[in-house]
Structures are given as structure tokens and as C-alpha cells.
Amino acid sequence: MILGLVVGMGVLLLVMGMGKRFAREVVPALVDLPGGAWAIGGGLGVVTVLGVSGWLRCASGVSAGSRLAWALSALGTATCCGVAFGPFFLLISGLPGRNCRSESCAYIPGTGSALLTYALSAGLMGWIAHRWTSARAAERATLERERVRRLRKKGKGRSRAARRR
Predict the structure, then answer these.
(1) Whole-angstrom Cα distance, residue 52 to residue 126?
(2) What is the pTM of this model?
């Protein structure tokens, strides 16, 4: 068990280091694209909101009918979780390291404005998505209350025990 934990931590640290190295190579190229850091931050914020909505949809989806359905649901949830958190970690890795003085930890120009735009666009899109889904839920609840009210008016909306009283 201890060997498994040591190997698992080693693999985790290796993957995290490779991810940071990959991000430090990719972020300067992304920031230099047309539209600059502002467009990249906004686009990654939208990607995050779409990833979170897919994550919530997959997580609340099909109950485990078979092993294949469960595995596909878990794979979809993990993929959407990666899409949701990936852009954030990509942008964070472009910021300077706290206690690192080497050139590989230096600030990548444009990352701060991309991170600001990312936070603003993800927050705005998330708020819009929340308002839309809560309005739809309120409309469905209103329709259900109206349906139950009409049934009660006819005397059919109560349980058998309540009708006998």
C-alpha cells in the first residue's frame, strides 16, 4: 500500500510538472493570437462554463444501469471536469512562481489580463446560465402548481385518504 502511494504521488507530481511545462510553452503562443490576452481569457471563460454545464449534466444523468453505462457516464463526467478546470490551471501556470528565481518561473506578459478577462467572462456566463436555468425551473414549478390546482378544482388532485375525509 505504501509503495502504491509513493508511486501514485510520483506519477501525480510528474503529470503536474508536465502540465505546467506544457502550459508555459502554450500560453505565450495563445496570448500572441489576434485579439490578444483579452480574447483568449474570454474564450477560455466560455469554455469553462460549458465544461461545468456538461459536468453537471453528466453527473446528474443516467443511473448505473449497466457497467458500460456507468463507465461512460464516469468518463463523460471526468472529461467535462477536465474541460471545466483546465483553462483555469492553464492561465494560472502563466503567472510567476512564488519562490522560484529561474527563467522558467518568470511572468508571461498578458497572463494577468487574460486571467482577469477569464474570471469576468466565466462569472458573467455562469450567472446568465444560472438565471436561465432557475427561470426555467420556476416556470416548470408554476405549471405544475397550476395543473394540481385544476385537478383539485375537479376533486381529483387529492389522495384517496384525503378525499374520504
Answers:
(1) 9
(2) 0.71
